[in-house]
Amino acid sequence: MAGPPQPLSRSGPSRILRFVIIFLVALIILVGLAVLIIWLTVRPKRLSYTVESAEVHNFDMTDTQLNASFSFGVRAYNPNKRVSVYYDSITATVGFGDQDLSFGVLSPFYQPHKNEQWLNIHLNAQNFLLHDSVSKELALERSAGEMDLDLWIKARIRFKVGVWKSAHRTLRIRCSPVIVYLSKSKTFKKTTCFTEV
Ligand SMILES: *[C@@H]1O[C@H](CO)[C@@H](O)[C@H](O)[C@H]1NC(C)=O
């Protein structure tokens, strides 16, 4: 004859297990709350870029070759209250149609929070070989007195929040079209750029 079943022990391993589970759940909730609070206070906003000026100088072309100097004034604005940005390397490319006309490297810089910086971008094309279709299109736009350029900026950036610094990310900025008037009578219209991090 077996005796009556033993009541489940209220002490020992099962009690420790319960404590561990409660502790882990509490820890997960606390970490979640901390992440939420940090995110709410930092609340990252998109970096903004606008082309505020664009000029083409020494423009000269044949059926196959191009000489030109391009200048762009780009306003870079960091609207964040707590996030600052390291631009560790930056390059700029000016394109027309499906051809890149010139490429250049800009100086690295640090952008604090709520800060505005001006990027003066100068790109030269000399004895540059144009694709057939690009040269035809460029000649047409030239005689019409305005050119639709594309400006691409690519940067390796890091974010800084307090003492924390993020890993490197690639920032891609596309300003298109940047309409440049070859006659001085028309005023330049700002171009807002698209960004992708
Ligand atoms: C571009 O400039 C170079 C050097 O000044 C000159 O030899 C060439 O003829 C120019 N090309 C055009 C298309 O004007």
Summarize the structure.
This protein has 197 residues and is an alpha+beta fold.
Cα(first) to Cα(last) distance is 75 Å
Q: Which ligands are bound?
A: 2-acetamido-2-deoxy-beta-D-glucopyranose
Number of domains: 2
CATH class of the largest domain: Mainly Beta
What's the rounded overall pLDDT mean?
91
**Residue runs with pLDDT of under 50 for 5 or more positions:** none
Q: How much strand content do the residues show? A: over 45%
| Overall SS class | alpha+beta
Task: Outline the biggest β-sheet.
Answer: 7 strands, antiparallel
The helix-strand sequence is HEEEEEEHEEEEE
Q: Report the CATH architecture of the largest domain.
A: Sandwich
Number of helices: 2
Shape: elongated
Portion of residues in helices? Answer: 10-25%
The rounded Rg comes to 29 Å
What does this structure look like?
Keywords: Membrane, Transmembrane, Transmembrane helix. It is found in: Membrane. With 197 residues, the chain is of the alpha+beta class. The protein folds into two domains: 12-42; 48-196, Immunoglobulin-like. The chain contains two helices and eleven strands. It has helices at 13-42, 132-144, and strands at residues 48-61, 65-78, 83-96, 99-106, 109-111, 115-129, 146-161, 164-165, 169-181, 191-192, 194-196. The strands form two sheets. Strands 3, 4, 5, 7, 8, 9 and 11 form a seven-stranded antiparallel beta sheet that branches. A hairpin with a 2-residue loop joins strand 3 and strand 4. The longest helix has 30 residues, at 13-42. It is elongated, with a radius of gyration of 29 Å. The N and C termini lie far apart (75 Å). The structure holds 2-acetamido-2-deoxy-beta-D-glucopyranose. 2-acetamido-2-deoxy-beta-D-glucopyranose binds next to strand 1, strand 2 and strand 6.
